[in-house]
Amino acid sequence: MPYVNIKVAGSLTxxxxxxxxxxxxxxxERIANKPKSxxxxxxEEVKGENWAVAGDLLDSD
Amino acid sequence: MPYVNIKVAGSLTxxxxxxxxxxxxxxxERIANKPKSxxxxxxEEVKGENWAVAGDLLDSD
Amino acid sequence: MPYVNIKVAGSLTxxxxxxxxxxxxxxxERIANKPKSxxxxxxEEVKGENWAVAGDLLDSD
Amino acid sequence: MPYVNIKVAGSLTxxxxxxxxxxxxxxxERIANKPKSxxxxxxEEVKGENWAVAGDLLDSD
Amino acid sequence: MPYVNIKVAGSLTxxxxxxxxxxxxxxxERIANKPKSxxxxxxEEVKGENWAVAGDLLDSD
Amino acid sequence: MPYVNIKVAGSLTxxxxxxxxxxxxxxxERIANKPKSxxxxxxEEVKGENWAVAGDLLDSD
Lengths: 61, 61, 61, 61, 61, 61
What we know:
- The longest helix of chain A has 19 residues, at 14-32.
- Chain A has a single domain (3-52), classed as Macrophage Migration Inhibitory Factor, CATH 3.30.429.
- By secondary structure, chain A is α+β, with helices and mostly antiparallel strands.
- Chain A is elongated.
- The first copy, chain A, has one helix at 14-32; strands spanning 3-9, 40-46, 51-53, 56-57.
- In chain A, 31% of the residues lie in helices and 31% in strands.
- In chain A, the strands form two sheets. Chain A has a two-stranded parallel ribbon.
- Chains A, B, C, D, E, F: Residues 2-58 form the 4-oxalocrotonate tautomerase-like domain.
- Chains A, B, C, D, E, F: Keywords: Isomerase.
- Chains A, B, C, D, E, F: InterPro entries: 4-OT-like_dom, Tautomerase/MIF_sf.
């Protein structure tokens, strides 16, 4: 019963999300013996104004 | 002080969210003795492109 | 495909968690038409030292 | 390696998010010795229809 | 700046977590062009009493 | 109604958590006009074996 939440700054294409989901699900099956049908993955694409590193928003000048 | 996060694939109507919030808050009061005013609930409606099960995005053909 | 995360301050008995899980899953089926088998719920029991309200840890004197 | 997620009901201006990010990152450096470059902060602005307190959505009449 | 949270029911060995972290970080670099050093991954190992599927705790009889 | 989740690698003393909670709650009041009593903060202290950066667990040799 894995549940995986993936947050990225910026956006991903549908194709990128499809590939990431397939690979991460495969990783959890091969390494941790989790049946693929058990794995839920959610993506969150976070705009630069909503993500800070080192105290600065990512869309800062 | 419960904090509940509910993620669903797809969307919910305002009416559905209102009913779910009322019922979950009531459940936590009856079963776990949490005063209703202490319970925060947030909803996240996740589009099919951002939720994968078994390695496939939910909006896959 | 609902995923629900329930954080409570303090602990719950196994019986309380079983009842809450059953009721919340039922709520999502009745109100939002989510098949019961699709619903994942995780509980997190947070000790008072790790939960603050109004700027004070819950185990404060 | 702190990761901080800040959910607020309603919205914040870019300026408010910039100030909050700077202050929280500074707090973690001063109090917990976390180098600023290690701290990731994400903001989520949750509309009233998606946040309930005491069993009522925040945009309720 | 990806941040990935992986929750699994039950526990993982340190070796399993090391391999999963390496693979997921590699996936995000290859597919989404995220530099490896930007990726944070946290694991949460959730005991069966704290995870429910279909309304039943995973450690149910 | 802010809800803040703070994950750190390693542990914090109770005193550190108390100070961080007080400061972050104050920040949200001053900058975003959130009454202190509305702010919930939870801390999660994540051991090195459960946090990876750049594909390596933090307790790696």
